[in-house]
Amino acid sequence: MLRIALSVVIALVASVLGYAALWQGGFVLMREAVQFDRTTDPTALPFVVGGLVLLVVAMLSVAMSSVGVITVGVVHLLSGLVAVLDPSLTFIRLIAQSFGEGSTIGDGVLYSVSTGIGMLAGVVFLVTGLAALTRRSQRPGAVARVASVIVAIVAGPMGVLLAFMGGGLVYTDLIVLATGGFNPTGAVLLLVGTVLLGLAVLTLRWSSVGLMVLGSAIAAIGFFGLVGPGQLASIAERVSRELSVTVQFAAPNGNLALLGMLLLAAALGTVLRSRRRR
């Protein structure tokens, strides 16, 4: 019971503080990237790094109990579904405005939810908790490891790409054009992408190797996006304009790196939990 309570406290507190720090520093870096401002705020990057560390700690709480990460994941997914199903973003805007007019944290809420980053992070938290509950305690065999890698590197990148493309459509309609209309294409792409990433995370039931490979790749791309957001956005533009829209926000503000770090933390936390059971 103590482990369950600790996991909930650690997951909730670390995720709240982590997002606050990530959005504080990430908004500054994103603004500088969009405006091509070379004058970097020296506190921005430490805030981003600190936020990432705290969110990794939140995910690692799965080593004690799944309840904390499941709770955080449900909150993420519910807020993401509200953004998809409520074209006016009324509820999300009220939350953003509660932090004050022009608040970086409020803007972080809008960017994360409307572009689909929140849903992707949510499915990582939620499925990690569920997979850890049902994972076998014995050491995974070679077949399980290979299968986890294959599923993770196929479903994971496809899920992130589709979700980012759908998030770009939703963001454009809700924030840029302010049409207030429901975008079915964006919603479907976002939901399908979220499900595919969830399938990749579910490979934790077999082995953590697949998610380690996927997380390392996405984290590397994410950190490259922090230092070279323009180059990454140009590459994304070749795939689709909608993908580029999301990358322009997710790369410089650290959200793409966040996804990679959460996947790595999920793999590590599940390994630690399985070793504790032996």
TrEMBL record:
Keywords: Membrane, Transmembrane, Transmembrane helix. This is Uncharacterized protein. The chain crosses the membrane at residues 44-62, 74-96, 108-134, 146-166, 186-204, 211-236, 256-272.
